Amino acid sequence: MATALHSKPHRDALTETATRHCSEVPFRLLDTNEAAAVLDIGRRTLQERVEAKEIACIKIGKCVRFHPDDLADFINRNRQKAVGWKGSK
To answer: What are the φ and ψ backbone dihedral angles of 66, each rounded to 5 degrees?
Structure first.
């Protein structure tokens, strides 16, 4: 006999809740190829930065995904001021 956890009304409620929350999310998680393209680096370099914990990632099973804000954080942390350029102060 199925438990209450696996009953159809319960699953429908979970699906509805998940759908409602997902529709409110204004971004899409990026895969390794897309994240590497955003950063203009190779996949292996991206993987090395993840292993060094320099770039945050989200693991879903065997899949690795990246939140756009985490990529922006990495970019901002590594931004350097221009020195010696004409017009720089």
So the answer is: -130, 135
Output the pTM of the full model. Answer: 0.64
Find where tokens 């756009």 sit: 68
Question: What would the pLDDT profile of 71-86 be if each residue is shown by its tens digit?
Answer: 999 999 999 887 776 6
Domain edges within the chain: 26-78
DSSP string, 12-46: HHHHHHHHHHHHT-----B-HHHHHHHHT--HHHH
| b/e 44-83 (16+ beta carbons within 10 angstroms → b) | eebeebbeeeebebeeeeeebbbbeebbeebeeeeeeeee
Looking at the domain 26-78, which fold is it? Multidrug-efflux Transporter Regulator; Chain: A; Domain 2 (1.10.1660)
